[in-house]
Give the backbone structure.
Amino acid sequence: MPFIQVYVEPLALSLNQMFTYHSKEILERGIRVKVEFNHKEMVAIVMGECEKPTDFQAKEILEVLDEKPLLNDELFELAEYMSNTYVASKMSCFKTMLPPSLRVQSKTKPIIMEEWFEQGEGKSSLTPKAKELFEKLQPMLPMRSSLFRKQAKTHTKQLLEKDYIRSIKREKQEEIASNYEKDRPPILSEDQKKAIETIRNEENSTFLLHGVTGSGKTEVFLQLAKETIEQGKQVLFLVPEIGLTPLMIQRVKARFQQKIAIYHSQLSASEKYQQYQMVKNKEVQIVVGTRSACFMPFHDLGLILMDEEHDTSYKQDAMPKYHTRDIALFRSAYHHCKLVLASATPSLESYARAYKGLYTLVELKRRIAQSMPKIELVDLREGEVEGGLSKNLLDKIQDRLAKKEQTILLLNRRGYLPVMKCRKCEETILCPDCGIALSYHRSENTLVCHCCGNTYPNTNTCPKCGSHDFYQHGMGTEKLEGSIQAKFPEAKIVRMDADTTRKKNAHQKLLKAFEEEGDILIGTQMVAKGLDFPNVTLVGILQADAGLVRSDYRANETTYEMLEQASGRAGRADKEGEVLIQTFDRSHYVMESVLNHDYRKFFQTEMQYRHLGNYPPFTYMATLIFSHTELSHVLLEARKVKDELKELRVLGPIEISMRQKKKRVRLLLKDKSQEHLETTIWALAHRYKSNAVKLEINMHPLMLEE
């Protein structure tokens, strides 16, 4: 009997090794099996044959779960890359790649089957009515039994008994995308033609498409996709959030008029399975989806298109904590296909790579058929402010309502953190070592740096002017909606935030409601990007600079991206757009860069700060999170690990917010060498033995945990 090596389902790094079992038959790599492990029945994934072990008695495989392998050679190589890069177990990588119904776990969700009827070999005679019905329905076979029974209510039993039809089981199919009327490709601008030509002819495989909002990046995507599809190859369209998926689906379906696969987190397990199988069985050429769509089982991938590549949603926050861009780069290299990263506000890492020539920079500098919106910075220290809105913004909302035009109001709720900002001189209290905002901890009445961990007493005194008067932040979207409705009772308001978009297809329904009859759309960051409504002529951004005082090294970058993206929602058709940005700090370089749509100025200034602070892209980072019910245990463990990591620069330990009633402490690690950082942390993961204190590793974090 052959001996088989497998990975078992527990995801712990301590079990990141292969175990040997014997089998009654030869099994292909990538098939799931049931085995006994640690006195429990568990699911494992086959890695291949091996020699008979000499030092122990191998147990027998209990059950084979699949006829064919679930993973191909490419996905095994990708799992190896992910495991090495993100210090994650192979099994966690396999689990991430597969849809829920196929995952390697004991409680596998069942694949839903449904009854269909297919044609049999019936030869005996039928009643005239049954014969007439069968002749009518025969051309439609095979068909769902429920549909057949509706049309042949009293004769189905006779047709089954006489073998004119046979009952079969099929995996349930669910239609999740509507058909759209075919669109006509627009006439391309000179910039678009040049961009397509460059991407088509350049030998480089990775391109950064930097185009101002409304410059026609999606049309460049569609034209490139058309050429790829005509070559018989597959295309992957990636978007960062579910809210943008319906818009991309609409554009793709309307243009290509063919079946496409759709993959995102709000699909049911059976829907995800169906979409996955469509790609695996070569039934579709086009996939549109969010982060997890990058793992689809492509056989001949010809083009990867990653929209809004800067978006932090592309970083996974559970193990393995991968970045979608890294997976796209891997798959692009494997399939020898081109990868186009697109954004109006590229991430500093991507733009730096384009700056160095590692990516080819392609630019769309002008909007299609209309000018950029007029931007006005409203100083909240001057003039009247009512319910968080300046009189200027309220007047302009009233003007749009009178003209039957639409308004988007963005509340930067991400900025509402317990930072200390003086009302009198606008000074924010910063860490003297790190230069980022200190966070106020009410229970201890202290100011804490969430980067280096230093703690300072709260004197409630501004270090610049001596004032004792500090801002109290706290408005949410629901409160804002009530305030706006009270001022404009006739207005139809649509609110988009985490609360209103929980239900399935909620994004699509809310956007449709706003497009068809809404006057004002209120929302968080999700309304800042990707939306294209021709009747929106006013965008108001509240608390614009609140994000600048976040205790995170990316605070300026994420604020700039949000403001520039949100500004781009206004004036996207023939009507002129206007943007009002409410701020306390008009002179900040982020505000000046947005005012002039000057990404290059922002990039150059921000890179200077990153260099001085030794942050990415000038260094590689990782965070180690220790958690336990007792803070003393966590701190002791974190300090012990810090003493071990003498070859790296280590900041902390710093206490961060609790999770599941457990105290958490963070170490921040920096290294100039990515390979050395990964090797060092893998070595730590192998020798880390504490059973009481849990260790969580996040390689290359986009945000520092708070």
Summary: The longest strand covers residues 40-50. The chain has a mean pLDDT of 89. The chain is about 30% helix and 25% strand.
